[in-house]
Amino acid sequence: MKQIERRSDCPISLSLDIFGDKWTLLILRDFIFFNNRHFNELVTVEKISTNILADRLNRLLENDIVKKEVDRNNKSSYLYSLTEKGIDLIPIVIEIYKWGANNIDGNNANSEFKNEVNSNFNKVTSEIVDRIKTTHNNGNRCTSL
Amino acid sequence: MKQIERRSDCPISLSLDIFGDKWTLLILRDFIFFNNRHFNELVTVEKISTNILADRLNRLLENDIVKKEVDRNNKSSYLYSLTEKGIDLIPIVIEIYKWGANNIDGNNANSEFKNEVNSNFNKVTSEIVDRIKTTHNNGNRCTSL
């Protein structure tokens, strides 16, 4: 595995060494909320360039946050899935959603989902985690969210 | 206020436009866990350069996440504090701590605090939020953590 240079052994610093950038958690947002798990779907992430996307996916693979398998529904294509370590990142992504939805003017959060996250954070997170565990473990694509 | 270019109106993307980098949340870690709130204390953040520190503090000020006031205990110095919007970021920082402590080999998490975060996340977060609200609102420095 390619080694990332550690700034310290602090758990927060080590985490940010892996996903402390503008793109990585956005790619995970697409996994979690939109079920975009093929490279050619992920290029729709906010004008990401293909080389940045490839770099970030590789970093996620190297750090065992995502895995990559031949798509059983299209053997010429690869399907990315979250590992257990990746699924553990879901609360971080939802906390960031919550912060942005509550604190940034002009954001496009769905008001129903925002209210649900604000009032039932643990329930919402746990439901999303359960759905991802099911859909990412069997290699099939969940076609309706 | 200096405008950050928006990649989209998604709350996650907008949030990462502000703090999606290797340093910003580490600076906030120092505010939250170590009560380091002066520039000359924050330069101890993992070998951060003074120009990056100044840039990130300015971005936090521009986005109303921190405020800067003359330190009443040392009038030649400025004291940074978290605003309400900054205090709202605390759960994100603690989720990142939790993920790193549980998932990255060789991290130096204190095992007692890690267990407490794993078993009583909401309680730990709420206690930290309450402490920061008290210490950052009155402009005084909390000398013991």
The arrangement of helices and strands of chain A along the chain is HHHHEEHHHH
Largest interface: A-B, 42 and 42 residues
Which topology of chain A does CATH recognise?
A: Arc Repressor Mutant, subunit A
Low-confidence stretches of chain A: none
Strand order of the largest sheet of chain A: 1-2
**CATH hierarchy: architecture of chain A:** Orthogonal Bundle
Shape of chain A: globular
Q: What is the tally of helical segments of chain A?
A: 8
Tell me the total number of β-strands of chain A: 2
User: What is the level 1 CATH name of chain A?
Assistant: Mainly Alpha
Q: CATH superfamily of chain A, called what? A: Winged helix-like DNA-binding domain superfamily/Winged helix DNA-binding domain
Distance between the termini of chain A: 34 Å
Assembly state of the chains shown: homodimer
Rounded mean pLDDT score of chain A: 91
Largest sheet of chain A: 2 strands, antiparallel
Tell me what you see in this structure.
Two copies of one chain form a homodimer. With 145 residues, chain A is mainly alpha-helical. Chain A has one domain (11-137): Winged helix-like DNA-binding domain superfamily/Winged helix DNA-binding domain (Arc Repressor Mutant, subunit A). The first copy, chain A, has helices spanning 11-19, 24-34, 39-42, 50-62, 84-87, 90-103, 111-119, 121-137, and strands spanning 66-71, 74-82. In chain A, strands 1-2 form a two-stranded antiparallel ribbon. The longest helix of chain A has 17 residues, at 121-137. At the A-B interface, helix 1, helix 2 and helix 6 of A face helix 1, helix 2 and helix 6 of B.
